Amino acid sequence: AEQDRAMTIGSSLFLIAVGAILKYAVTKDKWHAINIDTVGLILMIVGAFGLILGLYLTFVRGRPDPSLGEDDAAARRRRSRY
Fold it and tell me: Are 41 and 23 in contact (CB under 8 A)?
């Protein structure tokens, strides 16, 4: 589960970087069929959403519920894996 969250964050950062490159660094000389600025903006928005989701999964859902005992939290983690 921890590795999935790290992949989500890493993939999101990659999408943001590719989107920024397409939006700000690629010229439109040879790309008449699609609007590169729009594609870059869409990739940055999707990347930002994925980054927020990955951070939420890491910091909010990754913590055990303090109202549960230690045994209850461990059992809940085991159940959520399947």
Answer: yes
pLDDT tens column, 9-63:
888 999 999 999 988 888 776 667 788 888 899 999 999 999 998 888 878 776 6
Decide: pTM greater than 0.90.
no
Report yes or no: 13 and 51 within 8 Å, Cβ to Cβ.
yes
Contacts (Cβ under 8 Å, ≥6 apart) of 39:
19, 22
Sign (positive or negative) of CA dihedral 37, 38, 39, 44: positive
Residues 54, 4 contacting (CB under 8 angstroms): no
Cα three-residue angle 81-61-50, rounded to 5 degrees: 95
Q: How far apart are CA 30 and CA 22, in angstroms?
A: 13
First CA to last CA distance, the chain: 11
